[in-house]
Specification:
By secondary structure, this protein is mainly α. The protein has 31 helices and two strands.
Length: 572
């Protein structure tokens, strides 16, 4: 219907402005008019996904696919929701079904690859064996850390990470066996005084208040010294481990790991010393510069953090650093700028970061910051005096019948003073003249919300409902106006006109669209779902004379009158 399309357009506009909750409300309204439109479910699913409400996103996507099984977009929505709910197997199946309909679809193909990758990881415990905290543990353990200076060993680990199924073949390498021994806790006592590390993996793109950090942070646990009781064990230790040299200089990565441990314990100045040493050893690794920036960020020295981020970006361009590392510098610079109050420039830096490297958490952080900016801009735009000037100009245009022109001026009045009920009411009157009743209803609802004693707004609200043939709601609005001004002639005339329309509709040919619209009204639905009312309506249908008995009960009488006014019950 035209009303459903109107709500859809409003929902699309709200979605484009990232007002996802408002968009959801609009698409829900559209579904009240056209409950079997697959596009509305698809759009609402996208809104829920943008708010990370993946359960609801999946529910709408499933409905979309049921209504339109040959529409590819529905499978895209469903597969995405299942992916973020961790239902990788279902996600893979959904994407495959979509590709059967449209082979080669880019979104479905990309989604399938990502879902299959996660499915393989979740079904193969070896996939994450040499990642995250396990990798950091191996890099700092005295028995295995030397292996990470060997290029062929790094290549082996890369091979395992990319293809976990090759683990069996790689177990023939004694270095891999040593790593497994460290990870699962056997044969780790040969080297006295060693460190074992356990820590969560850190993500660099996070909320502004989560002072993110590159790579891992460690908790060190000292082992007690144990003497090897047998010579054979001593020989084994000599074979597998390098001799302990107290004068050996630490590698850059080892310095970084020490810094990470201190960073996690919020000892930022001490952590800085290790990152500086790491840079002295390897001045081309921008991770260490990023980590220095993280320290200054956490200490609240945002200008210094920005300076270091710029240094990291310059070095990154010089040495051709991985985009994920330069993206990290851009995002931290953006968050530091936000902390300094430069919201606009901060947002721009974060957008640049996302262009270099996709990060879902940072994406949602950007969305929140853009909302803050929009609110800030709206507050800066407020000026009651200018608002009244626009309102007066709009009134003149309205009187002359130039409703589109008046609408532009009323829009400005609302933007300049968004808490003044009169402007919303006036704009609603303009929408009524333009026959845009859903928009008129939104404005007039806002007007009575801002000023519940605004009689003119209640009458106008009744007029909107009357034009939408929602006579039961029109009566309620006029009755509210009558409470405020019992002698208001316009209100009395409106009540009489509405009652006449109800009687005429009850005795004439049923208006199917009006009835369908009424049945979508939550208030009407609640009345019909009420067990007591269900019994009452059943009794009246079987014995119309029993209606007189029920009408003596105020609650039942009000409910029946609402159903009559809505066109659900006919008296003719």
């Amino acid at each position: 219907s035209a009303q459903a399309l109107e709500w859809k357009e409003r929902g699309n506009a709200a979605f484009q402005q990232k007002n996802y909750q408002e968009a959801i409300e609009c698409f829900t309204k559209a579904l009240e008019f056209t409950p079997n439109d697959h596009v509305f479910y698809s759009n609402r699913s996208a809104c829920y996904a943008s708010l990370e409400q993946y359960d609801k996103a999946l529910e709408d996507a499933v409905k979309c696919v049921q209504l339109k099984p040959d529409w590819v977009r529905g499978y895209t929505r469903k597969g995405l929701a299942e992916f973020y709910l961790g239902k990788y197997k279902e996600s893979v199946e959904t994407y495959k079904k979509g590709l059967e309909i449209e082979p080669g679809n880019a979104q479905l193909t990309e989604g399938l690859q990502r879902a299959e990758q996660e499915l393989n990881k979740s079904s193969n415990p070896m996939a994450n064996l040499f990642t995250g905290e396990n990798l950091a543990k191996l890099m700092t353990h005295p028995k295995t850390r030397g292996y990470f200076q060997q290029q062929d060993f790094i290549q082996l680990l890369t091979l395992v990470q990319n293809n976990p199924n090759m683990m069996q073949m790689l177990l023939q390498d004694p270095r891999v066996m040593d790593c497994l021994g460290v990870l699962i806790g056997f044969d780790t006592s040969a080297q006295p005084g060693g460190h074992e590390d356990s820590h969560p993996h850190d993500h660099s793109h996070d909320h502004p208040h989560d002072h993110s950090h590159d790579h891992s942070h460690d908790h060190h646990h000292h082992e007690e010294h144990k003497e090897a009781p047998k010579k054979t064990e001593e020989k084994k230790a000599e074979k597998n481990e390098a001799p302990k040299d107290p004068n050996r200089k630490l590698t850059a990565e080892e310095e970084k790991e020490l810094g990470n441990t201190l960073f996690k314990n919020k000892k930022y100045e001490e952590a800085l010393e290790h990152y500086i040493k790491a840079l002295e050893i390897n001045p081309d690794e921008i991770t260490y510069i990023n980590n220095k920036a993280a320290c200054y960020f956490s200490m609240g020295q945002f200008d210094k953090a920005i300076e270091l981020c710029d240094e990291a970006l310059a070095k990154g361009r010089e040495v051709g650093a991985d985009l994920s590392k330069t993206a990290r510098a851009l995002s931290r610079k953006g968050l530091a700028l936000v902390q300094l109050g430069n919201l606009e420039e901060g947002i721009e830096q974060i957008k640049k970061s996302l262009m270099e490297f996709h990060d879902d958490k940072l994406k949602f952080t950007l969305r929140d910051l853009e909302k803050q900016k929009k609110k800030k801009d709206e507050l800066a735009y407020i000026n009651p005096e200018i608002a009244e000037t626009h309102n007066n100009q709009a009134n003149e245009l309205f009187k002359n019948g130039n409703f589109p022109g008046a609408l532009v001026e009323y829009d400005e009045a609302v933007k300049r003073n968004p808490t003044f009920a009169k402007y919303y009411s006036n704009r609603a009157a303009c929408y009524i003249k333009l026959m845009e009743f859903p928009r008129a209803l939104t404005d007039i609802n806002k007007a009575v919300e801002l000023d519940p004693k605004f009689t003119r707004a209640w009458i106008r609200k009744g007029n909107v409902h009357y034009n939408m043939k929602e006579y039961h709601k029109a009566l309620e609005a006029y009755e509210e106006a009558e409470k405020l001004e019992p002698n208001n002639d316009e209100c009395k005339e409106a009540l009489q006109k509405t009652m006449a329309a109800i009687q005429s509709e009850s005795s004439g040919v049923p208006d199917e669209e009006r009835i369908r619209h009424a049945m979508a009204d939550p208030e009407i639905q609640n009345i019909l779902k009420d067990p007591q009312m269900s019994q009452v309506l059943k009794d009246i249908s079987e014995n119309p004379m029993s209606a007189g008995k029920y009408m003596t009960d105020p609650k039942i009488r009000n409910a029946i009158n609402k159903l009559i006014a809505a066109g659900v019950i006919r008296t003719g």
